[in-house]
Amino acid sequence: MSENPLINIGELSKPATVLIEKISDAVGGIFEPYQIKRVAKAEAEAKVIEAKAEIEVTELQRRAFRRFLKEEERKQRNIEEITKKALPQLSEAAQPDKVEEDWIANFFDKSHLISDDEMQTLWSRVLAGEANSPGTYSKRTINFLSSLDKSDADLFTRLCGFGWKLYEEEIIPLIYNLEEEIYSDNGMKFEVLTHLESIGLITFSSIGGLSQTELPEKINANYFGKTVELFLPQNEKTLAIGKVLLTKVGQELAPISGGLQIKGFFEYMCEKWASHGFIKKEELPEDNQPTVKIE
Q1: What is the distance between the terminal CA atoms of the chain, rounded to a whole angstrom?
Q2: Which of 33, 87, 95, 146 could form a disulfide with 3 if both were Cys (CB 3.0 to 4.6 A apart)?
Q3: How far apart are CA 7 and CA 114, in angstroms?
Q4: Contact indicator for 191, 159 with CB cutoff of 8 Å
C-alpha cells in the first residue's frame, strides 16, 4: 500500500487524475510516497558524502541538512494537503488539462508554505476553481493571496457576507450607513474597510456613496440564493450601491471567500429598496417576505 495519504489513483475521477498529473509535471513528486523526489535524491547524496572519507562533513553541515529535510517535508505536506482538499471540489466538466503549467508552478511556489487549515482550504478553492474553469484566477491574484494574512482573510470573508449579485456575476457588498446595527453588529467598521482598501481588496468611498447608472429597468437582485426583482424608474435607471466596490482581485476571491449570509440582511435591503419604490411587497417571493415599510 502506498504511504502517500493523498490519493488512491484507481479511485479518482478522470479530472482529478489529470490534475494530479499536471501538478506532478509542474512541481514534481506528487505521486511519490510522501517524500518528494528531490528529498530522496538529497538523502542519497548525503550517504555518498558520508561514504567519502576525503570529505569531512561538519556538525554544522549535518544540522543544515536535517533542517533542509524538515523544510522540504513540511512543504510537501502542504502541497499534498491543498491538493487533497481541492479534489472533491472538481466538477465532472473540469478541464485541468488546460491549466497552464506555469500557473500551477507559480501556485505551489506561493502556497507551499501555507500550513494553516483554513488558509489551505482557501487555496484549495482557488486550485479547484482554476481546474474547473481555466483562466478564472490571474497570477496577480495568486501572488496577492500569498501575502494575505489569516486575519485579513477573515475580515474579507465577513465583508462578503454583505455581497449581492445585482447583474451578471459581479458581487457588490452593499455597505451603506456603518452606524446601523446590521453593520456594526456584524463587524463592519470604518477601520475594517480602510484596511481592506489599503491591501487592495476593495475601493472604499468613505465620503458620499457609489451608484450604478444606465441599468436596465428590471434587475434580479440575488443574495445567497434569495432573489427579489427591482424595478427602476424609466427616467432614472440609477441604483445607489453604498460605499464599497471590490477590486479585480477582490472579485476573483469573493466567490471562494467562505462568506455567509447575514441574518436579517435580505430583509434589511428589501425594506430599503421598498422605501425608495424599487420593489413592492406583493412582488416578493412568498418564502422571502420581509416586513416592508414604505414611507
Answers
A1: 70
A2: 33
A3: 20
A4: no
Say which residue, 46 or 186, is predicted with more confidence.
186
pTM score, two decimals? 0.77
Measured distance CA(228)–CA(292) in Å, rounded: 13
What's the rounded Cα separation, in Å, for the pair 55 and 242? Answer: 69
Edge-to-edge strand order for the sheet containing 171-173? 171-173, 163-165, 218-223, 226-231
Residues in the chain: 295
- Distances in Å between the Cα of 128 and the Cα atoms of 131, 193, 263 are 5, 29, 29
> Are the C-beta atoms of residues 107 and 126 closer than 8 Å to each other?
yes
What mean pLDDT comes out for the span 170-186? 95
Residue 282 has pLDDT above 60, yes or no: no
Rounded CA gap, 150 and 156, in Å? 10
As a whole number of angstroms, the distance between CA 212 and CA 207 comes to: 17
The CA distance from 41 to 39, in Å, is 5
Over residues 105-128, mean pLDDT:
94
